[in-house]
Amino acid sequence: MTGPSDVPARTQVAVLGAGPAGLVLAALLARAGVDCVVLESRSRSYVESRVRAGALEPGTVALLRELGAGERLDAAAMVSHQFELRIDGARYVMPVTELSGQPMYVYGQQEVVKDLVALRLSAGGPLLFGAEALGVDGIDGPTPTVRYRQDGVERTLTADVVVGADGFHGVGRRSVPGARTATREYPVAWLGLLVDAPPSGDDVVYAFSRAGLGMHSMRSPSLTRLYLQVPATDTLDAWSDDRIWAQLHTRLAADGWSLTEGPILERAIAPLRAYVSDTMRAGRLFLAGDAAHIVPPTGAKGLNLAVRDVKVLAPALVALLRGDPALADAYTATCLEHVWWAMSFSCGMARLLHASGDPFEDSLRAAELRGLATREPGRRMLAEDYCGVRP
Ligand code: RFL
Ligand code: PHB
User: How far apart are CA 347 and CA 325, in angstroms?
Assistant: First the structure.
């Protein structure tokens, strides 16, 4: 890690945030010979242990391998050839690989972050932890500046370009003047659990039940990841272990399947929201990943979208720094196409998979889900959208 004494004050690209978007971008830029400095507000141990996403599209995995961050992933990721839709206890297997030609992968986001942090540090690239960006100035001129605080000291970093890859709560998106946002708040949240128990089967299971969505996923042969739909207003104290397990058993119940319990290692309630900024660029400031858009987690798309953005952004920045602005000018429009596709899939799944409590509405949802799960066009669409392979 770069220490305070050798903190650079000038770089080509200042990247805010060491999440998947910022770290993949830094790796792509390093490969193209562009200097960048990554500023991350949290500590290294915090970002490497923050439990979040798990399902990676084949395109994301291919890029991580290509960048040299695929070794641990290839040893530990679980290849997911199918997932299961469970509708009022009836089981429908979606053969993703058979229908789309590619599998999904299950590998924790914090492991992806660990691999990318190691890659960046091994290449000697500046990556500053505990460095909180406070604001971005001069984005309409040729050399924007980031004000940030590290170890209680305020510093500035001057760059040719600044990228806000600092998530929904960062300063990047607040520094784009005049951005209009399309937003949807949901009345439900997800209670996410990491459990010290072997997964109860090989498949990710999305269960629609009248008591609410229940989900089964995994992180390793000995770690299970589970989710429950809860009211958006709930806090963790409303959810004792007994209540959690009772609800998981009810919602995931199905013939021939039983849920293995274990100690809950980690629990958090995450709000469900959908949000898209209509512009991902203002002058020399660009946004990528959750800073520009949030999708509900029902489609497993957020991290994968962050990677899609920076795949578009890296060559655009390389060209811009060489004096050719065409790709940078097209950045927002290019990204909004994949963002709205993923939004449409994720919001569609969110609408169908969460119970509303209204018996008529929920019977409609179950019928619609059965229609998708049993007819060829629906099955193919679900498989292709899930693994991000569009014909
Ligand atoms: P991140 O990961 O939030 O990283 C942003 C980083 O910026 C730092 N930061 C700052 N740094 C400097 N200065 C500041 N002022 C800063 N403010 C913030 C933060 O500390 C952080 O390190 O955004 P990024 O890189 O855009 O990545 C997006 C993904 O994290 C997110 O979309 C996914 O986790 C969404 N998601 C899923 N995505 C998938 O592709 N597949 C999944 O299976 C999946 N499951 C999920 C999910 C999100 C979930 N939650 C938490 C709602 C499951 C859940 C429960
Ligand atoms: C996960 O494994 O955390 C996961 C899988 C699928 C989703 C969301 C999260 O849609």
Answer: 34
Which CATH fold topology does 79-103+186-272+355-386 show? D-Amino Acid Oxidase; Chain A, domain 2 (3.30.9)
**Sequence-ordered list of residues with C-beta below 8 angstroms from that of 189, at least 6 positions apart, any chain:** 229, 230, 231, 232, 234, 269, 270, 271, 272
pLDDT digits (tens, 9 = 90+) for 285-304: 999 999 999 999 999 999 99
Using alpha carbons, list the distances in angstroms from residue 296 to 185, 200, 353: 10, 25, 11
Ligand 1 atom 30, closest CA: 303
Q: What is the band of 1 on the pLDDT scale with cuts at 50, 70, 90?
A: very low
Protein residues with CB under 6 Å of any ligand 2 atom: 53-55, 106, 204, 217, 225, 297-298, 300
Q: Is the CB of 383 under 6 A from ligand 1?
A: no
Q: Within a 13 Å sphere around the CA of 50, how many CA atoms are in the beta-carbon half?
A: 12
pLDDT score, position 7: 76
Q: Which atom of ligand 1 is nearest to the CA of 54?
A: 43
Q: What is the pLDDT of residue 5?
A: 52
The full length of the chain comes to 391
How far apart are the CA of 167 and the centre of ligand 1, in A? 6
Assess whether pLDDT exceeds 50 at residue 4.
Answer: no
What's the CATH architecture for 4-54+109-180+278-345?
3-Layer(bba) Sandwich (3.50)
Which ligand is nearest to the Cα of residue 353, counting in written order? 2
Average pLDDT, the chain: 96
* Residues contacting residue 332 through CB under 8 Å, at least 6 positions apart: 278, 279, 280, 281
Best mutation site among 15, 42, 52 for ligand 1, i.e. most ligand atoms within 8 A of its Cβ?
Answer: 52
Percent of the chain with pLDDT over 70: 98
Question: What is the distance in A from the centroid of ligand 1 to the CA of 282?
Answer: 22
pLDDT in tens, 146-169: 999 999 999 999 999 999 999 999
The ligand minimizing its distance to the Cα of 295 is 1
**Segments making up each domain of the chain, as ranges:** 4-54+109-180+278-345, 79-103+186-272+355-386
Indicate the pTM of the whole model: 0.96
Substitution site in 38, 106, 109, 112 for ligand 1 pocket (most atoms within 8 Å of beta carbon) = 109
DSSP codes joined into one string, 98-130: HHHS--EEE--HHHHHHHHHHHHHHTT--EETT
